């Protein structure tokens, strides 16, 4: 009766492995990787990213009051150096270097300085770490790993970089996009790791985006904020937020495009759209690969008075354990969804709410939309439940990709979030992570 | 490897069945019950409570914007009648009468009027409903059930009343307390139903407390607010909030105590303490009986700057799926607890946080407390992890009752919440509730 997780949609994220072009990676960036033994499996656990030209950098960090040493160090390095002049980043998996006190901070600095020194970079490296918290990194392993990784630097192996930052991820996560701007074609590549503890506000995830665009620090910051809002802050797996989350973007200007300094320019908007597409695809890969997830769920809110309120309602639905358990059971339990809408904190009118369940991404579903009866069913019309065929509903929800579409009837704003179901496998995976 | 739920602590709540005295029930109240067929099992699904003397009533209702018909009706009846003059309450299980539109409201009124009419009560009955939402009640069954229940009215069978309001509860929930006040001994009895969707702010739970105390409407309201804060609003199962939640207290004055009109009087404080004890025991029974729970978990926060901030931190821990999964796995994962402290929204200083895991209720655990090494282990000292024996930790957490104690080092306020672990059984139970 209960599905084996191994039969589920875990193959999907791997398709990205066949879909990237090595000749479209941003120019001037190299990656190097190594397996230094932090991971008991012997898999790669050190990743270095190096740019021949100095980069402008923007970053968003965890809002958790408990911040890991590499987060504290990287924030400080960025501020001290005015978000520019960076040539390198070092990432380790297999240890979060969080709750590690003064020694932890010292170790993060050692990683930073060793990397920049080996790369002959004029400025200290940024640092990211992921893994178990509360344990000191074995620095003899890490130092050897960094030295080994530097010897492997090359321009085309971004997939190994994506692999080296994995923890409980089942597949490496990489997305790329190119866009023609004034003065040249610009390339973007992003890698990330996710799995458990994913939440709006970016729980336990690391993401690095590199682009050869020429863009000012201020514009880069605005672009990243926008992209993170619509990607990593629009996904939910289990509502926890980690000590290490970081999204950083490096821009080295090697594309030779006309330097972007204006957030209202066409070049800026095109680049922003492209980066948003890269981060959105990465964020969706994280949801698809979430520990124990069996379904990819799109939550679409229409008719909100403001986009922010739409986001609050979408978040309330996507964090409801009862909604997520029902989806796992392929039960179109609109009552639980409506309850989550009702307690979201937004002042909704229950008698204006309409609701649909759909297969796929719910794109053409809702008030005044196509609402193909083969792929969607309406369950609620202005607060009143509609008669429905339970067998057809269960069949709809038997798909791997399903959507819940809610019309609030309050205004014209929309919001979309992505989440997954809550499965027995989630509990199994998370009850024995450390051992 | 994974425990069978049937072997777990489900017996515990039943112990209350042996622990009540029929001669200590509040005077002047009778209960009647019937099985009218709303429950497919044929179990009792109608409960009537009747007081020979008119009662002052206070009530707290769900804050969900989507409110069930009986909630809307009862609120209106209370306001219209200034919270006094009520002789009766009718409750059905097997159907929540929520999202049922005008017809639902009409049905709730029919239940109210039929009950007061059969009881010859001068004022319409209050109404509560629980069960699946979005379906109209079968009123021919309900009306017959109310008529049948009226014929069974008696003073001693509060356990049948507790049984008749159960939905997915495994055991009936009843608590009682007596206290000597000026002018006479006062008795209190409370019944409630809980199970899934339990949250601070009282999700899917109904509770009725009856007392023969003589107390003003205003004092009764103050007393209930206090009691709910420290009981039903201090438990968490899965963070959802339902459309039907109601806690009501009826006071009929039959004890002959000196009428209480002053919230600073000794009589008021004693009665408040007694009611708080009753509601706290009921709230804890709800957690122990939560769908799929295998552990009863006490979260104690000490050293908060304000009680409210302590409550926010406790709530953040008790809603973390990762913390709750780890507890199920008997894994002393202090890192997940610390992460939940860090993202609670309270401005904590990670370098001041201490943390203990304990068996039992964590009462004697914390800074400057006994901290018996047989029953507690400290994992974090001012932000720094302590070396620990993982086997001993797992043994500690193998108990059914466990506690997490956190010292924030910010001030002198404390807060306690009760929750349960997140188990595979929870997901199973909630993925197929409707079918």
Explain this structure.
The structure is a homodimer of 435-residue chains. Chain A is α+β, with helices and mostly antiparallel strands and 435 residues long. The first copy, chain A, folds into two domains: 18-289, L-amino peptidase D-ALA esterase/amidase; 296-432, ArgJ beta chain, C-terminal domain (Ubiquitin-like (UB roll), Roll). Helices cover 30% and strands 25% of the residues of chain A. In chain A, the strands form two sheets. In chain A, strands 1, 2, 3, 4, 5, 6, 7 and 9 form an eight-stranded mixed β-sheet that branches. In chain A, strands 8-15-10-14-11-12-13 form a seven-stranded mixed β-sheet, with helices on both faces. In chain A, strand 12 (376-381) and strand 13 (384-385) form a beta hairpin. In chain A, helix 1 (69-80) crosses helix 2, helix 2 runs parallel beside helix 3 and helix 5 (217-229) crosses helix 6 (266-288). The longest helix of chain A is centred in the middle third of the chain and has 23 residues, at 266-288. The radius of gyration of chain A is 22 Å and the shape is globular. The two termini of chain A are 29 Å apart. The relative contact order of chain A is 0.14. The interface between A and B is large, with 63 and 63 residues. Chains A, B: The active site is at 204 (nucleophile). Chains A, B: Substrate binds at residues 167, 193, 204, 291, 430, 435. Chains A, B: It is found in: Mitochondrion matrix. Chains A, B: Heterodimer of an alpha and a beta chain.
């Amino acid at each position: 009766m209960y599905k084996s997780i191994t039969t589920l949609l875990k193959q999907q994220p791997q398709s990205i492995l066949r879909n990237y072009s090595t000749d479209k990676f941003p120019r001037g960036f190299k990656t190097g990787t190594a397996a230094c033994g932090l991971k008991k499996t012997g898999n790669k656990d050190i990743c270095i990213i190096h740019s021949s030209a100095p980069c402008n950098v923007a970053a968003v960090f965890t809002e958790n009051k408990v911040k890991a040493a590499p987060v504290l160090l990287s924030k400080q390095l960025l501020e001290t150096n005015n978000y520019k002049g960076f040539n390198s980043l070092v990432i380790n998996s297999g240890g979060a270097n969080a709750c590690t006190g003064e020694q932890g901070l010292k170790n993060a600095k050692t990683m930073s300085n060793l990397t920049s020194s080996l790369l002959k970079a004029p400025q200290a490296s940024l640092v990211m770490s992921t893994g178990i918290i509360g344990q000191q990194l074995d620095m003899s392993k890490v130092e050897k790993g960094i030295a080994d990784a530097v010897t492997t630097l090359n321009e085309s192996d971004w997939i190994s970089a994506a692999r080296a930052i994995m923890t409980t991820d089942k597949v490496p996560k990489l997305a790329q996009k190119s866009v023609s701007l004034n003065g040249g074609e610009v390339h973007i590549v992003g890698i990330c790791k996710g799995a458990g503890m994913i939440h709006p506000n970016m729980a336990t995830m690391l993401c690095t985006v590199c682009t050869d665009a020429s863009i000012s620090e201020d514009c880069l910051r605005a672009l990243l904020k926008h992209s993170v809002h619509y990607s990593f802050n629009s996904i939910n797996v289990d509502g926890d937020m980690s000590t290490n989350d970081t999204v950083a973007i490096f821009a080295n200007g090697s594309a030779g495009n006309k330097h972007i300094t204006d957030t209202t320019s066409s070049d800026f908007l095109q680049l922003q759209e492209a980066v948003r597409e890269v981060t959105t695809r990465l964020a969706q890969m994280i949801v698809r690969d979430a520990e124990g997830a069996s379904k990819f769920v799109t939550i679409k809110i229409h008719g909100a008075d403001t986009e922010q309120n739409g986001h609050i309602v979408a978040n309330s639905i996507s964090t409801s354990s009862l909604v997520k358990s029902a989806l796992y059971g392929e039960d179109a339990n609109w009552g639980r969804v409506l309850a989550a809408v009702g307690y979201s904190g937004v002042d909704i009118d229950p008698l204006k709410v309409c609701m649909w369940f759909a297969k796929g991404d719910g794109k053409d579903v809702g008030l005044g939309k196509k609402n193909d009866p083969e792929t969607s069913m309406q369950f609620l019309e202005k607060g009143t439940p509609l008669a429905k065929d339970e067998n057809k509903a269960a069949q709809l929800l038997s798909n791997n990709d399903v959507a819940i579409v809610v019309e609030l009837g309050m205004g014209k704003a929309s919001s979309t979030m992505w989440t997954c179901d809550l499965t027995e496998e989630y509990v199994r995976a998370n009850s024995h992570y450390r051992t």
